[in-house]
Amino acid sequence: MTARVPVPCNGCVACCRNELVVLYPEHGDDLTLEHDKVDTPHGPLHVLKQRENGDCFYLGPQGCTIHDRAPAICKVFDCRRYFLSMPRAERRQLAQRNGAKIGIFEAGHARLTSLTDEERREAINQRSMTRAVAISDRQWLRKTAGL
Ligand code: SF4
Ligand code: SF4
Prior knowledge:
- The protein folds into two domains: 77 residues, no CATH class; 51 residues, no CATH class.
- By secondary structure, it is α+β, with helices and mostly antiparallel strands.
- The structure holds iron/sulfur cluster (SF4) (2 copies).
């Protein structure tokens, strides 16, 4: 099972809204979770269901309702490292294209002090987060599959 990255979320749910969460069975994701199968030129993708308002199907009043069963992408996403993984101009561009990202960048920025200097340096030098990649995938998905 994918280990959860210890981000001090403290009630924030910014990344559970208006994001397409792709399921990766090869990373242990549970395909019995409510999801849509989306055909793309590169094969089918499984995308967690969203409510009409864009909230994740599994987002409850107290946050995620499937904590340990949450997709790998949710467990490894770290908005602090995501914030640091791109320069300001790129963040701004992304936020202009997808306003939902602003909340995630703000959440990441507000929590930077919970990373050590070393961790911050690493994050700046290495754009490696699985979910960051997946977020790009989702932009591609939106375009390709009209989501
Ligand atoms: S945006 Fe950051 S702080 Fe907010 S829920 Fe996601 S990981 Fe946690
Ligand atoms: S599965 Fe849980 S952590 Fe993942 S987006 Fe949905 S509510 Fe958030």
